[in-house]
Design goal:
This protein is an alpha/beta fold and 136 residues long. It has 5 helices and 7 strands. It is globular, with a radius of gyration of 16 Å. InterPro entries: CBS_dom, CBS_dom_sf, Diverse_CBS-Domain.
Length: 136
């Protein structure tokens, strides 16, 4: 059996964040430029939320809403799923699947240090299932 992995070993390090006062249009521009689907929202260094590409697209298509004037902080509905870097990958993957969320924000205290997405989870799964890792 492979050794237990921590999220800290599998996460995308030092993710780009956006301030809660940033406009939705600015957040969407960052996502497009960098190819992201999830963007942690901070107030200074403190994690306060998460905005997804899906949410941004919904806002962009809402009548009467101009994403150039609406802030990401206006659309934070609930605290994001956040874990510490020592949390086992198994626990995070299980919780993500149960909650049907696409990412976990990795924090050290309140400071964002990484992001673990379904893409990262698939990479870990592929490594585990690689033919060279199967002793047959």
């Amino acid at each position: 059996m492979p050794p237990a992995r921590t999220i800290g070993a599998c996460m995308t390090r030092s993710p780009i964040t956006v301030e809660r006062s940033a406009t939705m249009a600015h957040a969407f521009k960052i996502m497009v430029e960098h190819g992201f689907r999830h963007l942690p929202v901070v107030d200074g260094d403190r994690l306060v939320g998460l905005v997804s590409e899906r949410e941004l697209r919904v806002v962009e298509n809402m009548k009467g809403i101009d994403s150039a004037f609406v802030t990401v902080g206006d659309f934070i509905l609930e605290p994001p799923y956040a874990v510490g870097p020592e949390t086992p990958v198994h626990d995070v993957a299980l919780t993500m699947s149960q909650r049907k969320v696409g990412s976990a924000i990795v924090v050290d205290g309140d400071k964002v240090v990484g992001l673990f997405t379904t893409t990262d989870a698939l990479r870990v799964l592929a490594e585990l299932l690689a033919p060279s890792s199967n002793p047959t």
